[in-house]
Structures are given as structure tokens and as C-alpha cells.
């Protein structure tokens, strides 16, 4: 179990690096400062407080996709809990 902490920390650094590289690649090569005329931004997020998800989004389609993801996260957490109870 002691190996899980370094793996988690390493995954956080890898995620941070991927987001940083993606940000630079998406803005690189645009002469307009990274904006497009007539473009819209869509997005949303999930806040998981225990098994209870709080979903928010800028439009119905984003929120619907995030609700599906929230249901999947709940299922994964329940399965992980059941597996942990059998191991311990």
C-alpha cells in the first residue's frame, strides 16, 4: 500500500505537464492572441463530495455529458469500496 502515494503524486505531475503542454499547443501559431471571432466557449465541471456529485455546465449538452461521467464515477467509487472491504 505504500507504493500508492508515490504513484498518485507522479500522476498529478504527469497531468499537470499534459495540461501545460496542451495549453501551449492550442495557443501556438495564432496571431490573434488565441481567440477566434465568433467562437463560443462551452464547458462545465463536477464536484464530488463523497458519493454525491454536483454538476454544473454552460449548456445542457455539457451538463448531460458530465452527469453521465458523474454516474460512472459513483459506480467506480462503489466498486472500489466493495473491493477494499473484501481485501481488508
Task: Explain the overall architecture.
By secondary structure, the chain is of the alpha+beta class. It has 2 domains: 1-31; 43-88. The chain has helices spanning 4-27, 60-87, and strands at 44-49, 52-57. Strands 1-2 form a two-stranded antiparallel ribbon. Strand 1 and strand 2 (52-57) form a beta hairpin. The longest helix is centred in the C-terminal third of the chain and has 28 residues, at 60-87. It is flat, with a radius of gyration of 18 Å. It starts with a helix and ends with a helix. The relative contact order is 0.08. The model has no long low-confidence stretch (mean pLDDT 83).
Give a quick precis of the structure.
The chain is α+β, with helices and mostly antiparallel strands and 88 residues long.
Keywords:
88 residues, alpha+beta, 2 domains, 14% strand, flat
Could you say how many structural domains there are in total? 2
Secondary structure: number of strands: 2
Q: What does the overall shape look like?
A: flat
Characterize the main sheet: 2 strands, antiparallel
End-to-end separation? 12 Å
Amino acid at each position: 500500500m505504500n507504493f500508492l502515494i508515490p504513484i498518485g503524486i507522479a500522476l498529478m505531475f504527469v497531468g499537470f505537464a499534459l495540461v501545460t503542454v496542451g495549453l501551449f499547443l492550442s495557443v501556438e501559431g495564432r496571431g490573434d492572441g488565441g481567440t477566434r471571432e465568433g467562437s463560443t466557449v462551452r464547458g462545465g465541471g463536477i464536484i464530488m463530495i463523497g458519493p454525491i456529485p454536483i454538476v454544473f455546465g454552460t449548456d445542457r449538452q455539457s451538463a448531460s455529458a458530465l452527469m453521465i461521467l458523474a454516474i460512472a464515477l459513483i459506480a467506480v467509487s462503489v466498486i472500489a469500496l466493495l473491493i477494499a472491504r473484501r481485501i481488508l
